[in-house]
Amino acid sequence: MVTKGNQPSGARGTRSAGNGARTPAATRPKTGSGTPQRSGSQRSSSRRSGSTRPSSQGGRRRPSPAVYRRRRLVVFIGLLLVLGLLTAGVVAIASSLGGKAEPVAQPTNGPEPQGTGTAAPGTSGTASPSAKATPVCDLNLVTVAASTDAGSYAAGKNPVLGMKVTNGGATPCQVNVGTSQMEFQVTSGADRIFSSRDCQASSEDLVKTILPGKSETANFVWQRNRTTEGCSVVNAKPGAGTYVFTASLGNKVSQKAVFQLR
């Protein structure tokens, strides 16, 4: 049988002439063009080393609860410090504003307004609670009394008419006891016999301070004569009989003092 051509040197094998077994094919060269292939041991070692390398996602360990507690404590302390600093700043600003004195407006040219004076240091506009108000005299408690030095007078004996002004209040009183306020009057029934004002030469004021419970006394000697308003001349003389003396001081009138003329 004729072969079609020479077999290549790279054929898988040739049959032997005796038993027909194939000879092993020529081994491929380990080097040449292309990528060198790894050996089995290198592949297994690279697989083992790749299995222990941590992955890029989910490879980190989560912190423990103790770490979280420490972090929260640090944040809480930081907040407390910030709040403390803010409070101290607000207090300092408030104290500085409160300590500033208000500027006093300077008066402009012109007349100074009335009633704007300030009180002297150490004094206030209102009275001290311990200060007592000055007591006021009650003139209603000032009384007038009439008296005579005797109850009966013989002929030729002139009666002495007396006026007593008494302060019955608890405070001193200033009372005008001058002749402008006094009147000594003698009557007999409905007959007006005598008045010290009818022929009074002058009228004067005399103010005196009468202490509580004290009195002022004025005396007038009646000449046993008659008078009329305007001081007209009256020739008639009062006769023996009963007479009434009344003393007056301003609008205050005493009770009647009765006496006898003989």
Describe the structure.
- With 262 residues, this protein is an alpha+beta fold.
- The protein has a domain at 139-261: Intracellular proteinase inhibitor BsuPI (Immunoglobulin-like, Sandwich), CATH 2.60.40.
- 18% of the residues lie in helices and 23% in strands.
- It has 2 helices and 11 strands, in the order H-H-E-E-E-E-E-E-E-E-E-E-E.
- The strands form 3 sheets. Strands 2, 5, 6, 9, 10 and 11 form a 6-stranded mixed sheet that branches.
- Strand 5 (182-188) and strand 6 form a beta hairpin.
- The longest helix is centred in the first third of the chain and has 34 residues, at 65-98.
- The termini are far apart.
CATH architecture of the domain at 139-261: Sandwich
| Mass-distribution shape | rod-shaped
What is the chains' assembly state?
Answer: single chain
Number of helices: 2
SS elements, strand count: 11
Summarize the structure.
With 262 residues, the chain is of the alpha+beta class. Helices cover 18% and strands 23% of the residues. It has helices at residues 40-51, 65-98, and strands at 142-148, 152-153, 160-167, 173-176, 182-188, 191-195, 207-210, 215-221, 241-249, 252-253, 257-261.
Q: Topology of this structure?
A:
Blueprint lengths: L39 H12 L13 H34 L43 E7 L3 E2 L6 E8 L5 E4 L5 E7 L2 E5 L11 E4 L4 E7 L19 E9 L2 E2 L3 E5 L1
Parallel strand pairs: 2-11
Antiparallel strand pairs: 1-3, 3-8, 4-7, 5-6, 5-9, 9-10, 9-11
